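User: Sorry, folds how?
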Amino acid sequence: MAEVAPPQAPQEPVPLDTIPISPADGTSGEVKTPEDSGDGETVTVFHDPDNFNVKHPLMNSWTLWFTKPPSGKGDNWNELLKEVISFDSVEEFWGIYNNITPTSELVVKSDYHLFKKGVRPEWEDPQNKHGGKWSYSFKDKKLINIDSLWLHVMLAAIGETLEDENDGEVMGVVVNVRKGFYRIGVWTRTVGKPFPGGGDGNVAGGKGRSVEQGKEVLMKIGRKFKESLGLNEGEVVEFSGHTDSAHAGSTRAKAKMTV
């Protein structure tokens, strides 16, 4: 599992194109050691945002997406959904997180999406279309720290702790900012059963599973997601399929599973 260091105090949000994602010498994909710096000194992104010499790679590359609020003038989803930036190391994650607007300060109808690189946060994406999501809505926005909750879920995702090794189910995580609630969700590749039509689609997450095995994998993800949110036993996290949500015309389709 990738070890993710704790953050320092968030800085003021800055324009995304000014975020230092890689060392100034341009070795963006190279994991360097203190010895490589020439003087043996460890320099992290927190010490020097332009000339750090240590990077800790994540198991997967991730992309941050943002959905801006509709203008009310007939915007379509593709116009509202914006790809922000991709990263593949712990240092890059914190460099981005500490320089974007906190969820608590986003305007209503905004969303952040953190998905594995190459997967768009859309139901129609080939890697999502047979999947679903676990979600929970926090209806009293004043009583929760949404920034802390969203951070914990993102860390669980990039640290690969929401699922077991080789499960291959977690596609990404999302937070929705709405007038009456915040909602956080985890998107999965399947709904716990083989894809329709046979073929390669019957191998969920890289290994063949029965329906019972597939559902148990999803249930484990749901339990870990619930734990990452710090919910108590009486608070229910729901799972629904993207196809059901699309047919219902809403993200609030009838739950297939609960934990």
